[in-house]
Amino acid sequence: MGAVIPPHPCGYLGRRMETASALLIATYRDDEIGKAHPLRVMLGDLAGCPVVHRCEVAPLSLAGVAALATGRPVDAEELHRVTGGNSFFVN
């Protein structure tokens, strides 16, 4: 018999947010989870919940990276190339 995977806390809470006086914010990197990853499965389950909203954050533009790098001894173009505009790595 296969292993039983317990429900993820975000999935449990996400399905109950309609009656809760709370805000749940979760982040993940979609380039690091495959199609069969439990998180992707949970996100699919939550897609039909009316109170669940997904907000994709686009990478920073070169101008955005340059603005964050202002006053630092780094080349903004190189920083943008190395980080792919990922604000987590730019800061």
Instruction: Average the pLDDT over all residues and give the rounded result.
Output: 82
Enumerate how many helices there are, as a single number: 5
Q: What would you call the structural class? A: mainly alpha
Distance linking N and C termini: 46 Å
Strand content: under 5%
Question: In percent, how helical is the residue content?
Answer: 25-40%
Radius of gyration, CA atoms, in whole angstroms: 18 Å
Per DSSP E runs of 2 or more residues, the count of β-strands stands at 0
Write down the overall geometry: elongated
Enumerate the spans where pLDDT stays under 50 for 5 or more consecutive residues.
none
Can you tell me the number of structural domains? 2
Biggest beta-sheet profile: none
Order of helices and strands, N to C? HHHHH
Notes on the structure:
- The chain is mostly helical and 91 residues long.
- It folds into two domains: 1-56, no CATH class; 57-91, no CATH class.
- Helix content is 38%, strand content 0%.
- Helix 3 packs across helix 4 (76-83).
